[in-house]
Amino acid sequence: MNSIENKTAIVGIGITDFSKDSERTELYMACQCIQEALDDAGLTPEDIDGLVKQTDDATDEHAVTSSMGMGNLTYFGECRWGAAPSAMIMRAAMGVAAGVANYIVVYRAVNGSSKRRMIASMRGPGQMSTSDLLQWTFHASFGHMSDAGRVAMIMRRYMHEFGVNSDQFGWVPIACREHGARNPNGMFYEKPLTFEDYLKSKMVVEPLRRLDYYEEADAAAALVVTTTERAKDLGQRPAYVLSSAQHMLAETEELTSYYRPSISSLPEMGKVGNKIFAMAGVAPKDIDCVQLDDSYGPFVPMQLEELGFCERGEGTEFCKGGDRIRLGGELPLNTSGGSLGEGHIHGMNHLIEAVRQIRGTSTAQVKDAELVLVASGAGGPASGLILGGKP
Fold it and tell me: Residue 203: which H helix or E strand, with range?
C-alpha cells in the first residue's frame, strides 16, 4: 500500500444528472459521464488504457471500449460491495503507481429508480454469492428480508447501549438535504428539510423512517486516475490520493454482521480509518470535510465515531442541531447532498464531490478545503480514502 502513497491523483470527473427516469440505457450514461471526465481532464478515449468497474454494474468493459473507441486497454478489474467506490479508486491508483497503465477510468452507471436496464446485472441467478445464499436461506426465512430491516436491528442495539432516541437520527438527513438543496444537479434542489418534516416521515422499519435511507436514482459517474507526474501536465487541479484502504473482518457480512461481540459498531470502518490517517500522516482534526456513506443516515454517527471524530456513543450528539455537520460548521458532511440529499448511486457521487471540494467548485464549498475524507461501505466490507490538494 505504501507504493501508492502520494503518487496518484484524480484528474477528471464526470457525472450525469440525477432523476427518477433517465430515459437512457446504463451504457449510454456510462459513456456520457466517461466522455465528460475525459473532456474535464483534457484526454481522449485513445489515452485510456485502464478501466475499473463495480462488479454488479451491468455495463461491462467490452461495451465501453467498443462504444467509445478505446483500443488500448491493458488494465481492467472490478470491486464489490458497498465498499466499492473508494476501493475502485484504490485499485486504479495501484494500477498507475505500478506502471501497468497510464490513465485509468473508474465508472459506474445505475438506473436504480426506473430499472431501465439492458440486462438486470452482470450476476445472474446462477451466480449467487455465499452472502446472497446466507441472506435468502437463513435470514429471509425468518422474515428478515429488507436491507432497512437489517440496518434497523443494528440501530436498535445502538439505541439501547447509548440511550439514543430515534428522533436524534434526523439531523443527518436534514443536513444532507440542506446541502442537496444547493445542488442543481441533484434530486432535491431547492427542497430542504425541517426537523418537523423528519418527524412526520413514515416509520418504515422501526427505528428507521423513510427519510433515514437513500433516494433511489438514475445516474452515472466517472473519474480519471493517473500518476502525480502526469497530473501536472493536465488542465485541472489534481486531487491527490494521499491514502486509501479496505477492510473486512472474519465476522463481516453485508448489513447482517450479528455474530460479532458488538453489533453497535462498525469495526471495519474503524480499521479503514486507522490505515488512511496513518498513511496520509494526518489526524481527524486536520480533515476539512467528509463524504460518508449515508445510504442509511443512522450509520453516519457511527462512522464519525469509528473514524475518530468523536467517542463511541457520541455520534448523534455530534450531529445534534446540524451545526457541526453543515456548511460553515466544524465538519461539513456530504456537501453535494450524498445519497440522502442528491441521489443514490452507491457512493460514486461522494467521490465526485470530494474532488470538487479540492478544486473549490462545489455548490456547498468549504473554504480552503485541502483534505477531504471519503468513506464507503458502512455496515459491511468497508473502504475509504483521503484526498488532498497537495501531494
Answer: strand 203-205
- Tell me how far apart the alpha carbons of residues 353 and 356 are, in angstroms, rounded to a whole number: 5
> Do residues 89 and 63 make contact, with C-beta atoms less than 8 angstroms apart?
no
- Model confidence pLDDT, tens digit, residues 110-136: 998 888 765 554 445 455 555 666 666
- pTM to 2 decimals? 0.93
**348-361 CB burial, b ≥16 within 10 A, e <16:** bbbbbbbbbbbbee
Q: Is the pLDDT of residue 379 over 80?
A: yes
Torsion angle in degrees (nearest 10) through CA of 306, 179, 36, 31: 70
- Look up cell 479503514; give the residue: 272
Mean pLDDT calculated for residue range 257-273: 89
CATH number of 146-203+241-388: 3.40.47.10
Q: Where are the domains positioned within the chain?
A: 2-118+219-231, 146-203+241-388
**CATH code of the region 2-118+219-231:** 3.40.47.10
2-118+219-231 and 146-203+241-388, same CATH topology:
yes
